[in-house]
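Today's session is about reading a structure prediction critically. Students often jump straight to the picture, but the first step is always the sequence itself: look for stretches that repeat, for charged clusters, for runs of hydrophobic residues. Only then move on to the predicted structure, which in these notes is written as discrete structure tokens rather than atom positions. Here is the chain we will use throughout the hour.
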Amino acid sequence: MATTTIAELSIADFKNLIRETVNETIVDFFSDPDEGLVLKEEVAEYIHASIKKLNTENLETTSAEDVAKNLGLEW
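Below is the predicted structure for this chain, in token form.
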């Protein structure tokens, strides 16, 4: 199997290699690793119950910004 080094690539081939690498990286970064997975029924029920409780009992919530601030994180 012949191995090509970067030094052996033409400028056009090198640009294509960079373009492909950047494209793959962006797709990997923005893709959803859970895509296609099925949520278990008991988890869905728990989430729905939590949302219902939050909406019906007027529970106080904390914004993500406040949580980050309390943890000393920049949001």
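Discussion point for the tutorial: Residues 6-70 form one domain.
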